[in-house]
Amino acid sequence: MSGTASKAGPLRSRRAGAWRQAGSRRGAGSWRQAGRWLPIAPATALLLLFLAGPIGYCVWIAFTNTQLTGSSSSDFVGFANFRRAFADENFRNAVQLTLAFTFLSSIVGQNTLGLALAGLMRAASRPVRTVTGALVITAWVLPEIVAAFLLYAFFRREGTLNAILDQLHLPSQNWLFTLPILAVSFANVWRGTAFSMLIYSAALAEIPQDITEAAEVDGASGPRRLWHITLPMIRRSIGTNLMLNTLSTLSVFGLIWAMTRGGPGNRSQTLPVFMYDQAFVNSLIGYGTAVALLLLLVGSLFSIVYLRLMKVEV
Known about the structure:
Mean pLDDT: 83
Distance between the termini: 71 Å
Helix content: over 70%
Largest sheet: none
Low-confidence stretches: 1-5
Radius of gyration: 29 Å
């Protein structure tokens, strides 16, 4: 028994020493982790203060009946604003127009035209690339309100488009009245295509030239090379461009407001315009903020879909 006790004593001391060493290593690791956070702590604090704070406050406002005018007090109303939105015919109309506007101007317009311009500029001469790039990028860097007034002057009843149609002896019309959602979609395509063109130009430049030349030698036509070689190799750039373009298009407000103010009636009233009308025209801040959160949810759903598609291997 005395021998066993004499052996147990050193064993316990070794275990205690190992525990102390492990504890000291954990403590040193914790300090190292804290040291890594120190350089980004100011930026994190600013994000929490100026981003997370307002978002949290907006979430709270969406569950109240806060108004700009009338009663100065606000009461918690739960999901009443959201139920009101889903029961509102104008809200459902705004959702449909938002999806149509996003599909026409972002998914189809900017994405397709940007890829076409990038492909054509890759095959064009240097002077043509310079002039085309400058013209397209100029439309992109213009302030949104300036672009809106330019396109308003183009589409209005006495505007440039109807003047061209009159010279060609073709029927003209008031485009902002008869086809308002198409007019603002075209305006958004005109203004935002440069972003897609730049992304696709960079992606196409990364495709090895020998792969394209080998496919051409094998007799593959242009459309077959595009479908079987080019598009699969720039798949991730396509997904990134679609996601960024879709999110920016969902939040377009100034362009539509300056061109049509959501009219005539509500025929071009997308969700941002509807949200503004409810919050600042009708003074229903709580209801307008609830609509803003629903718009944020729509953008999140689009992002999830694109991210999942980008994970699929070709």
